[in-house]
């Protein structure tokens, strides 16, 4: 009998009393000083888990907010100055088909859909009120390019006539719809918030951090990354040639006291390169300019260029197309051809990000 009582007592202790102490220890955990390392490690792990959970809770808040508010987009048509309301994904069909060639791999188009959805939601959350009532406009130089299905199909038909593309235009459209639908409800986040998903045409081999393009910081997910295979695309290399007079005139339009002596050695000299291999600063005559500014003055495709002074002419040999920040579209296609899926592609171009459902 005594034995049975003892067993019951042990059972009670094992079942209720000991777990109670463990539970209590977990709930009440406070910074512990002067304990052995193992305990401390447990504590750190626990703190990390706690932070993760708090982060998840924050994510949840952000995502719920997105879901309720951003399923309908008010799009400003810049040509007619009219606002159209349309479902988010329908808006994205028009963005993906305007921003990326239909011949690109499906996984690249899906990456573009992910990026475009993220960019849209980020923009709306910024609440810039740049377009009055509208969330976004259809201009690629301001927001993202957008084209209606009707216009898109007509352009593909045109390509069939002019370039013998042999497109089945409905199949093309279905490919766009698949790219958007297969990433439905997914966006790219960093520390629980939608990222500012910059993208461009061709990186010339390496992307750029925003600090080297626009100055300022605050985008830890936008780092320089290298991508192989970008040289296979027509956007990779270009040339701009002009007479010396034309060169001087273009500089004088911006800086009226500009002077240069082309006979002088080092009259044009690169001072520094960016992490992504573009021109950071360059001395041209009596001016020190950023590569970005030179790009703008001479309408170059990127700030990754080499200048050659000839007998008569000045020649810029340019690599890449666009500002170089975030996802390169041809890079995305190149990676897709190498077997990357859309999530791998996005993770390649944006550092330390997550792809989440909202
Ligand atoms: Zn805009």
Question: Could you explain the architecture of this structure?
Answer:
- The longest helix has 33 residues, at 37-69.
- The protein has 358 residues and is an alpha+beta fold.
- Strand 11 and strand 12 form a beta hairpin.
- Helix content is 43%, strand content 18%.
- Among the domains are: 70-204 and 327-357, no CATH class; 237-319, no CATH class.
- Helix 4 (106-126) crosses helix 6 (169-181).
- A three-stranded mixed sheet has the order 2-1-3.
- It is built from ten helices and 14 strands.
Number of strands: 14
- Provide the residue-averaged pLDDT: 84
- Largest sheet strand order: 2-1-3
Q: Total helix count?
A: 10
Rg computed from alpha carbons, rounded to a whole number of angstroms: 28 Å
Low-pLDDT runs of 5+ residues are 12-67
Oligomer: single chain
Following the backbone from N to C, one meets helices and strands in this order, namely HHEEHHEHHEEEEHEEEHEEEHHE
Q: What percent of residues are in strands?
A: 15-25%
The hetero compounds bound to this protein are: zinc ion
Q: What gap, in angstroms, lies between the N and C termini? A: 61 Å
- Structural class comes to alpha+beta
Largest sheet: 3 strands, mixed
Sum up the overall morphology in one term: globular
Helix content: 40-55%
């Amino acid at each position: 009998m005594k034995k049975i009582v003892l067993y019951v007592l042990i059972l009670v202790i094992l079942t209720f009393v000991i777990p109670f102490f463990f539970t209590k220890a977990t709930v009440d955990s406070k910074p512990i000083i002067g304990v052995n390392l193992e305990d401390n490690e447990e504590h750190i792990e626990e703190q990390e888990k706690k932070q993760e959970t708090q982060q998840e809770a924050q994510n949840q808040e952000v995502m719920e907010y997105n879901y309720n508010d951003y399923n309908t987009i008010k799009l400003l048509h810049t040509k007619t100055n009219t606002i159209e309301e349309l479902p988010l994904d329908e808006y994205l069909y028009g963005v993906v088909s305007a921003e990326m060639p239909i011949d690109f791999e499906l996984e690249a188009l899906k990456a573009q859909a992910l990026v475009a959805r993220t960019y849209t939601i980020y923009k709306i959350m910024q609440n810039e009120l740049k377009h009055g009532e509208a969330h976004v406009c259809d201009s690629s130089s301001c927001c993202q390019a957008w084209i209606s299905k009707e216009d898109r199909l007509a352009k593909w038909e045109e390509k069939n006539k002019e370039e013998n593309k042999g497109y089945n235009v409905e199949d093309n459209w279905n490919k766009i719809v698949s790219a958007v639908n297969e990433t439905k409800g997914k966006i790219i986040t960093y520390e629980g918030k939608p990222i500012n998903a910059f993208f461009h045409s061709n990186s010339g081999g390496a992307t750029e951090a925003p600090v080297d393009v626009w100055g300022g910081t605050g985008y830890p997910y936008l780092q320089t990354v290298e991508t192989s295979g970008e040289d296979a695309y027509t956007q990779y290399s270009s040339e701009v040639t002009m007479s010396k007079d034309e060169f001087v005139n273009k500089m004088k339009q911006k800086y009226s006291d500009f002077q240069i002596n082309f006979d002088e050695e080092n009259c044009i000299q690169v001072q520094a390169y960016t992490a992504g291999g573009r021109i950071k600063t360059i001395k041209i005559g009596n001016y020190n300019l950023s590569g970005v500014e030179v790009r703008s003055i001479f309408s170059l495709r990127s700030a990754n260029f080499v200048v050659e002074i000839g007998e008569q002419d000045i020649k810029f040999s340019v690599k890449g197309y666009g500002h170089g920040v975030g996802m390169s579209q041809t890079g995305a296609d190149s990676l897709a051809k190498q077997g990357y899926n859309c999530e791998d592609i996005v993770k390649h171009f944006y550092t330390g990000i997550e792809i989440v459902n909202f």
